[in-house]
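Quick one: structure tokens for this chain, please?
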Amino acid sequence: MTNNEIDRHSLSSYLNEFLNVAKFKDYAPNGLQVQGKDSVRTIVTGVTACQPLIEQAIALNADAILVHHGFFWKNEPEVLTGMKYKRIKALMDNDISLFGYHLPLDAHHGVGNNAQLAQQLGILNPAVYEDVPQDLLWHGHLMQPMSANDFNTHISRVLQREALHIGDCTKPIHTVAWCTGGAQDYIDHAVAMGVDAFISGEVSERTYHSAMEQNIHYFAAGHHATERYGIQALGEHIAEKFGLIHHFVDVVNPV
């Protein structure tokens, strides 16, 4: 077990630079969201800063938590009451820092959610689609063409969650576009790219019609399921670079 540590300010500065936070216009602040102790030795990573994640971080004697979905989203109530109060109180009572990285973690070309999803699914030559800002829509190709049923089975097996396939086209899937999380409306960009299939985390009622009428395979693979790999890879990177203790905590979320 390592005894290395890093001061909170240095960790914050490194993460902000590594993830190129200044580049992004986002829906919540990226970086340190709740201040904890000055030194960090043990970090916990997870997708969302929910109460179960915080409680497990406390049990693991964490000094800092790194998440993809943090606090202080635009248009949410600003007051610290109810669920938000309990979460933040638990962090402050235990002197645990909370770092949140939303779009910067989606877009990073190494540890990002989109890059990591491609790696998990075996998508080759992953690249950013330049017509969508902030490097959020990616595309690539499969090693060999697959039927929609086989690709749906593959996604479900890898992500350990049953994916939803929409589309009645019979063409095999060779080229794919994707964006993790709630990115279902990028389907029109995927159509414009001319790929065979599009993957996102969430699905909307309108997505069905878009896929059916534009003759493209669509797969909803789960918001949480598609975004669990980026934050884990980030934690592993930080732990290796600075010699910290790292625990990834996967709080079950079927959505």
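The first helix runs from residue 8 to 18.
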